[in-house]
Amino acid sequence: MSAEEEENAAELKIPDEFLKAKCLMNSEVALILEHKYEQLQQMGDDPMNQVSQVFEKSLQYVKRFSRYKNPDAVRQVREYPSLCVLGNLCPETVEEAIAMVPSIKTRGRAHDDEAIEKMLNDLSLIKKFE
Amino acid sequence: MPRRRDEYEDEEAEQDEEEEYDAADGDDDDYDDGGKTKRKRGRSDFIDDYAEEEDEEEDDDEEYGGGGGGGGGGGRGGKRNRRTAADFFDEEAAVDSDEEEDEEEGEDDFIDTGADIPDEDDRRIHRRPLLPREDDQDDVEEIERRIAERYANKSNNVEYDEEATNVEQQALLPSVRDPKLWMVKCAIGREREVAVCLMQKCIDRGSELQIRSVIALDHLKNYIYIEADKEAHVREAIKGMRNIYPSRIMLVPIKEMTDVLSVESKAIDISRDTWVRMKIGTYKGDLAKVVDVDNVRQRATVKLIPRIDLQALANKLEGREVPKKKAFTPPARFMNIDEARELHIRVERRRDQSSGDYFEKIEGMLFKDGFLYKNVSLKSLSTQNVQPTFDELEKFRPPGQSGDGDMSSLFANRKKGHFMKGDRVIVIKGDIRNLKGWVEKVEEDTVHIKPNDKDLPETLTVSDKELCKYFEPGNHVKVVSGATEGATGMVVSVEGHVVNIVSDTTKEVLRVFADNVVESSEVTSGVTRIGDYELHDLVLLDDNSFGVIIRVESEALQVLKGVPERPDVALVRLREIKYKIDKKIYAKDRKQDIISVKDVVKILEGSCRGKQGPVEHIYKGILFIYDRHHLEHAGFICVKSESCLMVGGSRANGDRNGNALTSRFGQLRPPPRAPQSPMRTPRGGPMNFGGRHGGGRGGRGGRGHDALLGASVKIRLGSYKGCKGRVVEVKVDRSYISDNVNVSTPFRETSRYGMGSETPMHPSRTPLHPYMTPMRDSGVTPIHDGMRTPMRDRAWNPYTPMSPPRDNWEDANPGSWGTSPQYQPGSPRSRPYEAPTPGSGYTPSVNYNDAGTPRDSGSAYANASSPYLPSTPGGQPPMTPSSAYLPGTPGGQPMTPGSGGLDMMSPVVGADNEGPWLLPDILVNVRRSGDDSAVGVIREVLSDGSCRVALGSSGNGEAMTVLPSEIEIVAPRKAEKIKIMGGAHRGSTGKLIGIDGTDGIVKVDDTLDVKILDMVILAKLVQT
Amino acid sequence: MFFHIVLERNMQLHPRHFGRDLRDKLVAKLMKDVEGTCSGRHGFIVAITGIESVGKGLIRDGTGFVTFPVKYQCVVFRPFKGEILEAVVTMVNKMGFFAEAGPVQIFVSNHLIPDDMEFQTGDMPNYTTSDGSVKIQKDSEVRLKIIGTRVDATEIFCIGTIKDDFLGVISDPGATS
Predict the structure, then answer these.
(1) Which chain C residue is nearest to residue A66, measuring alpha carbons?
(2) Which range marks the domain in which residue C29 is found?
(3) Of B33, B182, B643, C19, whose CB neighbour count within 10 A is largest?
């Protein structure tokens, strides 16, 4: 394996199909999975016995790590031109945000520190008022 | 240090000689030092020794030792005395052999030597010892002349050039014209002495002694070799000598002559700083490092971690009784001198004369820095494939010294082609130390690397000794050598040359040398198998417990035992394992759904509650579930099958045969009835007394699709011989058949049924009932036949174990026959019997019979099925059910209690278990009470077990939903397309290419395999 | 990281399922076949959220099975090297600790735990800083960075590090309880 092929999420070196795909925040995944879970529930029987372990684990995980519990808030965050990683991790400072997602600076998305800070502020506001 | 100090006859003569050729050697000085270090083995030793001798001349004793690089190790003290003519001979032999070896080993060494040593000198050295010396007046020229004379007609031997090619070397091999080698017997231990004597004789007598040379080999006791043209010469030479036996003179065949003088090639590998292992003694298997080699005496000084019991040593020294406990070997640890002193062991401190190092001497053993320096024979060292493990090397590092020093010695062991293009490497020596890069190209000893650094675009050439493989955390690697060879894992950290890897299988951290690792995407566990047993196999142990192998160690296995209450891991040796359990067994989960291997289940109770994973093994109702999130016991969890529930497959598995889909649907819908086929359960289990496949057969018979059905037959054999009747039902009893019934003839059984059905016969038979009745017990018999079967079995197979119910039967039987209400002439033939069939209860497969249906509803049935649980095939006493059921029996039947009980069961079967074994697209007979049967095709199997059946032989007709109990499978005929209803091939289609008794020979469509399957699980396929 | 992604799969269906509810059958089979599986490329397929299209079926010679190319949307979870995520600690031992982020198991070796954190044995084995202020034990939530992934047929296993800025414990169950 040479360096060129190596994936590195920090530099957004991930397979193309994922770059094109929509990445989801934990909160969003939680909404989707819970919805599905409810559907199963309506079919009677204990849905926990029907879903795969992957589903179950994922559901537990996203519920635990959802930053935004309120569907509306999730929608709001989604609309915000941010990265879902930030939505997942909710960094507090610009520095932290950059450490978490180095690509917000490098990908030419015109995120200078101020813009990032503003974004973080908005995110925390949404969280506060959800 | 023990040294051989043989006494030689004539010490003085030797002295003389030494002086003589020392003097003659003046011009050899130049290469003493230069050549020494590089050369190995015999030749170099010879030269070294030679050089030393010169030193000896000029210097005093002290300094003499320092001159010899390749010679003997510490304790050179004795060397001088030892330097005798005997050695001389020895060396000569070694040199000769060296030449021989050159031939074998190619030119490398040869040329090497040639480069270092001027031809003339070399030759001269070799030759010189051969000379018979009379006095010290001979000068070099004289010697040369004589030699030339001696070998005049074998010029080849003398004059060959150092640059000789292989071909020329070949020419050196002895031919018929050369002097022969004679093997002469002498006294044991006197070989050298004899040789020296001969030499002396030669010196004394001069040329009149016609032998050419004498060879005494260290490894050959009892014999010496004498080179001479004729045996007579040999005899002449040895005449009158002590210790030599002229009676035994043997000619060495020409071909073997070279072997005589070849040095064992093994010894070659040992050089300073090599890692070796001890072969014998207390230190057997221990790693040692060679400090010094003495090829002449075939000894080496090695450095070991001592295994010395100081206390025992102290005791011994003080003359106390030492308890002889040979069994235990003291652990290896560094010698602590202070500790020894405390125990009043005398410690001498002395300086080694050769190296100038100080050693502590205890009881004749030498210690330095805690290591034991031991002089051992080369033969006691194993040099092949010595791969020190990390731990060993770690230990070998003297306290307080960093490990890097030792590493370089490891690199010496590298195989060729160690680096490959694309390897990531780091430079460990020189100016560009710590530079990382990729290997671009590998040449002999140099490696071209492309630096990682963008500022260094050019490839660099580096010696492979200066490189080490480099890995980054996160790399997935495979260990290619060393103790953990074969393991794979991910690198978590790198410390110098050591990488820490998280093993893929054990999730443990392994410490390995970067050198022993290659990048790889392969996932293996290292050792996964001992003998016949492999990781994750289910095995039966000595004490009849069983478990799953969760870890394979070098000589033992860790087994997670099949104890559901708590995880019980046992360390088991190979011999404690009886065998591998490799059965297809099924178990039932809490909802009575049948679990087979690979089904995903969820654990509902116990400490592992909530975990889920695929079932890896089933045995005796115990499941072994593999949950990769379970970190202990390699992910295996052992639970009772009843504590589990099947869940939707998170694993796409193909092995669940056709069933998978339906079962999934079942789960998606509200009533998740297990659509598992009871047929899959091992019918052959406990119940089969009468015949191997009794149960299954019955089912088929019940369907009434045998060609014989309804035919009038005559019984040809047996006690009913001569009786006639109509075949009501066909039941094929394997054992029966094997008991001489020709397949083509109507079975007795059949006819027997006949008796039942045919009124006229009936009376006559009644008396017989008692006999037959027992058969029912056999439990084996399918339900349909229930009534009859049991009897048959008994009657015909008197061997069938008697079960308690049987008695009942006997009594009851007559009654049941007579009384059974169903026994109406008007009803479909099979029916009447079925209704009363008490026996049928035993076999679940029977269920298909309509007979059962009316009654089935009872909850009691559920229980009834349990005996059939696949998980407990062996254990189930076939009879048990009957008694168990008794209480539940709604009875209503005019039968005796015993029979009544049985009766009950038959319905049971019908209720729960049948559904599953129906599959779509098969031709069936639909029978609803009151109606005549109609042919139809199953279109769909619903989750509750009932089926959508389209009527008509090709399924064009009206569709209806039918209970499984109302369905009979239409048995296929030869050459018809079939569908397999049970077993491993369930769901597959095929063609019935033949029928052999109760077995159908089937060609499976998918695989084109030809299988022999029970006819019962074959159904006629209707293609749509 | 979770993604919503469109994947394609060729579904084989036996003709017996043909009929009005063929599509349902396909979907049900798809769910059964696909949900909960894992592939190296796409990671864990957590849930199917919709069907984009069902292509034209192709009858396979010989078997009668029909192959339908089905495009479906699904939620996948795919860990990447270099990704930072949060996870729940599931087991702590002297070699490090295991954590779970959804279906993925992550091992953080003690080499990748800050040097100032030391392993403490006991009922609740943990890694604790010398001043005791930070503690990693079972059920702790940690933020970690994935440095390596290993993919096999049924799972993805990762190794992670918390030896970096802003990584480490985000909640400590011991502190709250």
Answers:
(1) C86
(2) 2-77
(3) B182
